[in-house]
Specification:
Layout (H helix, E strand, L loop, with lengths): L1 H20 L3 H14 L4 H14 L4 H12 L1 H26 L9 H9 L1 H10 L5 H10 L4 H25 L5 H25 L15
Helix pairs in contact: 1-10, 2-4, 3-5, 4-5, 4-9, 5-8, 5-9, 6-7, 7-9, 7-10, 9-10
Length: 217
């Protein structure tokens, strides 16, 4: 049950924190300013120019989605954040593949074994969780030479819940809609539970002796 303790706290925070923050005049001003900027010409393209390297660096995309939801709305904000997240992950994946990150890791043998045996499921399970390093997953996947289509597909699918969740929260901020925030919390809990269930499966690989070898060239 300990796996669910931190996600449960995050679910509560997802409902309470935005409602509290929205009471702060400075927060209202920032959201209103982002709305004005997002209505400008080429705003979506300029957003991607900033968002792709932001995601590639492994910075928390939740903040990015909040601002995109408040400024662009649900549909456009979701598309832009999904594109930025996918592109940023592929940049990190390419860096890991180029520099061979993770080929000789010994402290992460269970995860490495899981990623090599079931790359799509491994990446998807980690992407569904609200905690963990996106940059580490991407560079490790590249270093282990996980098939790029499996990595890209799992990243795109696994990124949908959190992207949508925080876009919904952001879109509800300007008008104070609690419905979007409650719906986001429910989706957050479901995606986290699914991620935890999938991650539990890879622990079985830790009991199996395995020699890590160089990835295929």
């Amino acid at each position: 049950m300990r796996e669910f303790a931190r996600p449960f706290v995050l679910v509560i925070a997802l409902i309470v924190v935005p409602l509290v923050v929205w009471r702060i005049p400075m927060a209202q001003h920032l959201v209103q300013s982002s709305q004005s900027w997002c209505r400008g010409p080429w705003a979506g393209w300029w957003f991607l120019v900033f968002a792709v390297p932001y995601c590639a660096a492994g910075l928390p995309r939740q903040a990015l989605c909040l601002m995109a939801g408040a400024g662009f709305g649900v549909l456009e904000g979701f598309v832009l954040c999904s594109v930025a997240y996918e592109a940023g992950a592929l940049v990190s994946y390419s860096g890991g593949r180029l520099f061979g990150v993770g080929r000789s890791l010994t402290l992460m043998k269970p995860m490495v074994a899981f990623m090599r045996r079931a790359p799509f499921k491994a990446v998807l399970s980690v992407r569904l969780l609200p905690i963990g390093s996106s940059l580490l997953v991407s560079t490790l996947s590249g270093g282990l030479r996980i098939p790029v289509f499996a990595f890209a597909g799992a990243t795109a699918l696994g990124g949908v819940p959190q992207n949508l969740i925080f876009i919904l929260v952001g879109s509800g901020l300007p008008v104070g809609h609690q419905t979007e925030m409650i719906l986001s919390a429910v989706l957050f809990a479901l995606s986290t539970a699914l991620g935890v269930v999938m991650v539990r499966r890879y622990r079985a690989y830790g009991a199996q002796p395995m020699v890590l070898s160089e990835g295929r060239k």
